[in-house]
Design brief:
The chain has 364 residues and is α+β, with helices and mostly antiparallel strands. The chain has 2 domains: 111 residues, Phosphorylase Kinase, domain 1 (2-Layer Sandwich); 237 residues, Aminoglycoside phosphotransferase (APH), C-terminal lobe (Aminoglycoside 3'-phosphotransferase, Chain: A, domain 2), CATH 3.90.1200. It contains 11 helices and 11 strands. Strands 1, 2, 3, 4, 5 and 6 form a 6-stranded antiparallel sheet that branches. The chain has a 3-stranded antiparallel sheet with strand order 7-9-10. Strands 8-11 form a two-stranded antiparallel ribbon. Helix 3 packs antiparallel against helix 7, helix 7 packs antiparallel against helix 8 and helix 10 runs antiparallel to helix 11. 41% of the residues are buried. It binds adenosine-5'-diphosphate, 2-acetamido-2-deoxy-1-O-phosphono-alpha-D-glucopyranose and magnesium ion (MG).
C-alpha cells in the first residue's frame, strides 16, 4: 500500500519541501518511514509512523500516554547538551494534535529523527548489552515520579502470561489453519512449563512486587545506540509504555540481547543465551534501577528472562496457529521459526538459571 507521505508532511509542523520517504526499521507492528525534507537549504530527516490501529484500538489515548511520557522525560533532560537526541520528540500536526488521520483513516505520527545513532537487531558485544540495560533502567527510574492519572493500558493484559497461554489454548482448539499437527513438540514444550506462567502475576497480586511504569517492549532494537560514544542514548517505541512489572522489561532484554542470533534464525544451533551478555545486562540494569527495586523484584530478574522469552514464544505460536494475523511476516513459517528460537532460548536460559541467580547474589 502506498501512502501520500508528502501530503502527510504538509499537515505536520514541518516547514520545508518534502524530498523523499523510505520504509525504515524492522518492527513487527507499525509501518515506519524515514522522511527527508529540505528546510531552507538544509536536509532534515524525520520518522513518520503509521500506527497499527487494528492492534492499538485507542490511538488518542495511546498518543496521550506518549505525549505525557516524552514531556516528562523532556523536562528531566532540558538544557543538557544533545537533549533532543535523548528522548523522543513528537512533531505535532498543524492542528496541534500529536497525530493525524489521513483521508483513508490511517493514523500517523512523526518524531524528530535521532541522527548519528542506530538500533541493532542482534547484540554485538557486552558493551551494547550494558548500555541497553542502562538505558531501559534509567527510563524506568525517570518515569517513577511521573504525576497524573495512571497511564492508559494501550493493550490490556499485554504481559499477562497466563492469559497469553489461554489464548494459545483456544487457538489450538480452533486450529483455524490445520497447523496444530505440525507443532505438537512446541505445544508440549509450553504445557510442561505451565506452572511458571503465573508466578509474577501471583507475586503482584500478593503485593510482593509493585506495579510501576514500564516500557513493556524492551527489544534491543528499541534503544538507539550512539555511533560515537556507544551509549544507549534514547529509548524509542513507546506504544506500550504503561503500568507493568519491571520484569517485563528486564525479561525482554534477556530475550533480545543475549543470543547471538536473529529472532527468526532457522538454525537453532545458533540460538543460546551468552552468559557474559546476561551479566552485562544485569550490571547495567542494576546500576540504574537498583536503587528503587525491592528485594523480591530483584530476586526475580533472572527468572523474568525465562518467562518473557517463553511468553513471546507462546505469542508467536498462537499467531502461527491463527493464520499470522498479528505479527508482520515475510515468509509462510515465519512465526513458527520465531517461536522455535524463543523456545530454544528458554531451554538455554533454564540450563544457566542457577548461575544467573548466583551472579545476582554476588552483585549485592
Ligand atoms: P515498531 O513499533 O514497528 O517496532 P519503532 O518505533 O521501533 O517501530 O521504529 C522502527 C525502527 O525505526 C526502530 O527500530 C529504529 O531503527 C527506527 N526509529 C524509530 N524512531 C526513530 C527516531 N526517532 N529516530 C531514528 N530512528 C528511529
Ligand atoms: C513487537 O513493535 P515491535 O516489533 O518492537 C511486539 C512485542 C514483541 C515483539 C517480538 C505491540 O514489537 O510485544 O515482543 O514484536 N509489540 C506489540 O519481536 O505487540
Ligand atoms: Mg520497535
Amino acid at each position: 500500500m502506498m501512502y501520500d507521505l508528502n501530503k502527510i508532511c504538509s499537515s505536520l509542523v514541518i516547514y520545508g519541501d518534502f524530498i523523499s520517504a523510505e520504509p525504515y526499521g524492522s518492527g513487527h507492528i507499525n509501518d515506519t518511514y524515514k522522511v527527508t525534507v529540505n528546510q531552507s537549504g538544509t536536509v532534515v530527516n524525520y520518522i513518520f509512523q503509521r500506527i497499527n490501529n487494528r492492534i492499538f484500538k485507542n490511538v488518542e489515548m495511546l498518543m496521550d500516554n506518549i505525549r505525557r511520557v516524552t514531556e516528562h522525560l523532556g523536562r528531566k533532560i532540558a538544557g543538557k547538551e544533545d537533549s533532543s537526541r535523548m528522548a523522543l520528540e513528537i512533531v505535532p500536526a498543524r492542528n496541534g494534535q500529536p497525530f493525524l488521520i489521513d483521508d483513508d483513516g490511517n493514523y500517523w505520527r512523526a518524531y524528530l529523527f535521532i541522527e548519528k545513532a542506530q538500533t541493532y537487531d542482534v547484540i554485538k558485544n557486552t558493551g551494547q548489552a550494558y548500555e541497553t540495560a542502562r538505558a531501559f533502567g534509567r527510563f524506568q527510574r525517570e518515569l517513577a515520579d511521573m504525576s497524573g492519572a495512571r497511564l492508559f493500558e494501550t493493550i490490556p493484559d499485554f504481559h499477562h502470561t497466563p492469559k497469553r497461554l489461554e489464548t494459545l489454548e483456544s487457538a489450538i482448539k480452533s486450529d483455524l489453519k490445520g497447523r496444530v499437527k505440525e507443532v505438537q513438540p512446541e505445544i508440549d514444550f509450553v504445557m510442561k512449563r505451565k506452572a511458571d506462567t503465573a508466578r509474577l502475576i501471583e507475586l503482584n497480586a500478593a503485593g510482593a512486587i509493585p506495579e510501576r511504569i514500564t516500557h513493556n517492549d524492551t527489544k534491543l532494537n528499541n534503544v538507539m545506540i550512539d555511533d560515537v560514544s556507544g551509549q544507549g542514548i534514547c529509548v524509542i517505541d513507546l506504544d506500550t509504555v504503561m503500568p507493568g512489572l519491571v520484569h517485563y522489561d528486564f525479561g525482554d532484554m534477556v530475550r533480545t540481547s543475549t543470543s547471538p542470533a536473529l529472532e527468526d534464525e532457522k538454525d537453532l544451533s545458533k540460538v543460546f543465551m551468552q552468559f557474559d551478555m546476561f551479566e552485562a545486562l544485569l550490571r547495567g540494569y542494576l546500576e540504574e534501577a537498583g536503587t528503587f527495586l525491592n528485594p523480591v523484584e530483584r530476586e526475580y530478574l533472572p527468572f523474568s528472562g525465562k518467562l518473557i522469552t517463553l511468553e513471546i514464544g507462546i505469542r508467536f505460536l498462537t499467531d502461527y496457529l491463527s493464520g499470522d494475523v498479528y505479527f508482520k511476516i515475510s515468509r509462510p513459517e515465519h512465526n513458527l521459526d520465531r517461536c522455535r528460537t524463543q523456545f530454544k532460548l528458554v531451554e538455554s536460559i533454564e540450563t544457566q538459571l542457577d548461575r544467573m541467580n548466583k551472579l545476582l547474589d554476588e552483585l549485592r
